[in-house]
Amino acid sequence: MVVRGARQVGKSTLVRQFAETRGLKLFEVNLERHPTIREVAETLDPRKILREFEFICNRGRIDPSDALVFIDEIQEVPKLLQCLRYFYEEMPELPVIAAGSLLEFALAEHSFPMPVGRVEYFYMGPVSWEEFLAAKDELPLLDLLQNYDSGTAFPLSAHERLVSLLRDYLLVGGMPEAVQLYLDEGGFDEIFDAQESIYQTYRDDFSKYAQGRALVRLQKILDYLGQGVGDKVKYANIDRESQSREIKQALDLILKAGVVLSVTHSHANGIPLMSEADDKVFKLYCLDIGLYNRICRLDGLNEQLLRDARFVNEGVLAEHFVAQQLFFAETPKRAPELHYWLREGRANNAEVDFLLQIGQTVVPVEVKAGKGGSLKSLFQFSDAKGARLACRFDLNPPNRQMIRHQFNDREMTLDLLSLPLYLCGQANRLLSNALNERT
Predict the structure, then answer these.
(1) What is the location of CATH 3.40.50.300 in the chain?
(2) Ramachandran sector of residue 401 (left: φ over 0; alpha: ψ -120 to 50; beta: rest)
(3) How do residues 348-366 score in pLDDT, each as one tens digit?
């Protein structure tokens, strides 16, 4: 198994916890600390490699019946990726997990044959909103979310509690170190310091795969996110002194590192959405909303002000939250992807924040930071694509209603499922139920 994801999302910790809960003897080798493995890796001989691991770990012999081999930062010795095939073929009874924070670069830069069909891939993101609730031991609230039926009334006391906790998540984000500080009742100053440290680690990592002007362009992309999150990317807005080709190359690098998420326009005439995706039209979000706050320099306020203040970018915060949750909501065995819809023209501009593929249906999704807002873009999408079910995230309790609207000189009807932001993780289930009720 290969676990893929950005640095500091908790890949190594997850493997260690898995070994502990399963009662497995963990043999962990971090290849950043043991680059001498390169020589023995060239042999592609699993037994020789394991012998080296035994001496590095100093935990005795590796017995497949009760051991787990964990190769961390495997991108430092890419030949070991190829060798995973031989572990599978020659020692199928031995569980082997590999992980690497810059793994995408190793996969892109080396031409050796990958062990297709012999390795499972899992993709990890930051701590999700629902995992955040579980970690905080808010199990009754989590159970309410996971079992809520849109046909029933939502307890208002639970609604108020969830909105308050959601505010905390928007500030803390999902990087495990920041979440742990929050759970330990650390102050926001400590949490922001942790976010700053993670952010600087990412910037320091850039020097591993870019130098000179290319390095500067990578840093400018991060800086751009402070005001450009959720907007259609125009390369000139990132760096007017660089050519579009150079910005694109830098952006490809930062996307490979997993520090930035890309949401791509799809024409959305049907499923699958990816088949009509236009990779020239896209918008960006940070890996984590807490890191986005760091880029925006959200600090210097006391805790009460942080919880009560109205921020000028609250609409972007809400959209970023939904993007992050939806991006990592799919099965962890598939590379995350997310789409939106954009129509540009002199008189009929329209943008739908996100698109969800629910069975054979494309559902448009709008995000609002407050309790109201226009549905114009949803009606424009419905008119153009024939959609009859739409979803809106806002701060109201959940409800479903038929909206009638005079549009293009005719009356249109739209089945709108309105969900509070905190139900984002249940959107696929609730929309699927709504579609089933329609049929």
Answers:
(1) 2-123
(2) beta
(3) 789 999 999 999 999 999 9
